[in-house]
Design brief:
Helix content is 35%, strand content 21%. With 551 residues, it is an alpha/beta fold. It is globular and about 75 Å long. The protein binds glutamine.
């Protein structure tokens, strides 16, 4: 029988519930437990795939091609275990499933209701993750904040679930915020109210994790224990942290791992946590010295969460190379007037994915700049497409070159739909999604970086390189160094004679891990570091000067 840990959030959103859940996953995995994870999102969209990055941040893509919440990226990076489609559920999916059954007549004429039909469907999704992951412990994060109307069916489902599987198999953790008021004091009242709200629907938390800007003292912990009816040891302080990757160590030190194990009755069955590897990772992050400035040219940069996995992948590779990464967020629309001063002094440039025409011309300008000036460049998905458009414009001597995503009547659709894709009407879930094999050309930069002949990478795009332009671009130095096994689809382009100019149609950023950076990001960072050294920028900072960019 697996154990279940539910994580709810109170007082406000954006408390770092995902990081806390992922960090707990790490410290449980460090005790040798197999950890499964599930994020339950109370919105009505079926998945975040059709949502604006401004609304939702990044869409994280799983191996099996699900478009999911970005917290799943944290789970994979922290727990170091791939998740699947089963690990993200939304209210849209739950209602979809129930209504489909109703139309099929599965309910045999009964009245279909939130309780029990919606709650049963939610409970079934929790059991499904347990079955599919064969986990010892399933971590379930409830999106939103306790008190939201949307969350109610989930909390009710958890209440029932706890009785179904037995209370000894379930732990409920409530994460709250202690705000600091004008007098300088941290306040517990919002926490008390939020726990009261939980209890009003029949859920008593076993553990309260209190977020605050500083560690909370014993007086405050006693107060929370008293008012919220939890054991003193079960009030855990989670102060702001200098790096997200230091949070597992912080939580282990504050006793959260031990408390959860005790509450689940596992104390005698699991060893002490082995966090040595994680500790050396965090030590490396703390002590890296060589500054490296990487530009990220995107159009959703007001919300940096839109590029979460890309930013993390750059950091992972930089830390492994002994560098202190500094990200410069560049709004591609600002480059469209022709002033490229925002790109000055960069060691390397990443052009991430995107949908729609807005900001494209700025990215194409950025690519022209990095191509002609020998600046290491990594293009991801739309980034590859911009690299192709830029070189084709030069090769053809005309700007009438585009992707049919932006201009269905362009003279030169160098990026286009495949013939069989042309009739699709639905926007949701109709892209090339998830893991596909890519065959690498021997001797190419991609092949050298990966050190293996075939790789599997995750996709999320609709448009493809148009093979009618392969020869032309080849004659202008472009190498098609990664192809689908049948040779039809271009997966990687690179430029000969450039220090590093490589684009992928897939998204390598979804597979980078803090302790195992992605080979292409490693190759890119090495080239960026060489560039920084050649320009005299890669000067080690002294310990005193050093300010580590918090993850
Ligand atoms: N919009 C492009 C396509 O659908 C690129 C997608 C992306 O960058 N993820 O092909």
């Amino acid at each position: 029988m697996p154990k279940f840990v539910f994580v709810t959030g109170g007082v406000t959103s954006s408390l770092g519930k995902g990081i806390t859940a992922a960090s707990l996953g790490r410290i449980l995995a460090a005790r040798g437990l197999a950890v499964g994870s599930l994020k339950m999102d109370p919105y009505l969209n079926v998945d975040p795939g059709t949502m604006s990055p401004y609304q939702h941040g990044e869409v994280f893509v799983t191996e099996d091609g699900a478009e999911t919440d970005l917290d799943l990226g944290h789970y994979e990076r922290f727990i170091d275990r791939n998740v699947t489609r089963a690990s993200n559920v939304t209210t849209g999916q739950i209602y979809n499933a129930v209504i489909t059954k109703e139309r099929r007549g599965d309910y045999l004429g009964g009245t279909v209701q939130v309780i029990p039909h919606i709650t049963n469907e939610i409970k079934e999704r929790i059991h499904r993750v347990a079955r599919e992951t064969r986990a010892d412990v399933v971590l379930v994060e409830v999106g939103g904040t306790v008190g939201d109307i949307e969350s109610l069916p989930y909390l009710e489902a958890i209440r029932q679930f706890r009785n179904d599987v037995g209370r000894q198999n379930v732990v409920i953790i409530h994460l709250t915020l202690l705000p600091r008021v004008a007098t300088g004091e941290l306040k517990t009242k919002p926490t008390q109210h939020s726990v009261k709200e939980l209890r009003s629907i029949g859920l008593q938390p076993d553990i309260v994790v209190a977020r605050a800007d500083q560690p909370i003292d014993d007086d405050l912990r006693e107060k929370i224990a008293l008012f919220c009816d939890v054991k003193l040891d079960n009030v855990v302080s989670e102060p702001d942290c200098w790096s997200i990757y230091a949070v597992p160590l912080q939580l282990e030190e504050s006793g959260l791992g031990r408390t959860v194990i005790e509450e689940l009755g596992l104390t005698d069955r699991v060893p002490e946590p082995d966090l040595d590897e994680w500790r050396s990772l965090v030590e490396r992050i703390r002590t890296v010295r060589i500054p490296l400035e990487i530009g990220l040219v995107g159009k959703y940069i007001e919300l940096q969460d839109a590029y979460l996995s890309v930013a993390e992948s750059i950091r992972h590779a930089a830390w492994a190379a002994g560098c202190r990464p500094q990200l410069r967020w560049i709004d591609s629309e600002k480059l469209e007037g022709g002033d490229l001063s925002l790109l000055a002094g960069l060691d390397g440039v990443v052009i991430p994915g995107a949908f729609g025409y807005r900001g494209i011309e700025g990215k194409v300008r950025a690519v022209r700049h990095t191509r002609t000036n020998g600046i290491p460049t990594l293009g991801l998905c739309m980034g590859l497409q911009c690299m192709v458009i830029e070189l084709a414009r030069k090769a053809l001597g005309t700007d009438e070159v585009s992707s049919s995503e932006f201009d269905s009547f362009t003279r030169h659709p160098v990026i286009d739909l495949l013939p069989e894709q042309r009739d699709l009407a639905d926007k949701g879930g109709t892209m090339r999604l998830g893991s596909y094999p890519c065959v690498l050309q021997p001797g190419s930069r991609a092949h050298k970086a990966y050190g293996q002949p075939i790789v599997l990478e995750r996709h999320r795009h609709r448009y493809e390189f148009n093979n009618a332009y392969r020869e032309l671009l080849q004659s202008h130095g472009m190498r098609f160094s990664g192809l689908s096994p049948d040779g039809r689809l271009v997966e990687i382009v690179e430029l000969e004679g450039h220090p590093f100019f490589l684009g992928t149609q897939y998204h390598p950023e979804f597979k980078s891990r803090p302790n195992r950076p992605h080979p292409l990001f490693v190759g890119f960072v090495e080239a960026a570091l060489a560039n920084a050294r050649a320009s005299g920028r890669a000067v080690e900072t002294s310990a005193a000067q050093r300010t580590v960019e918090a993850g």
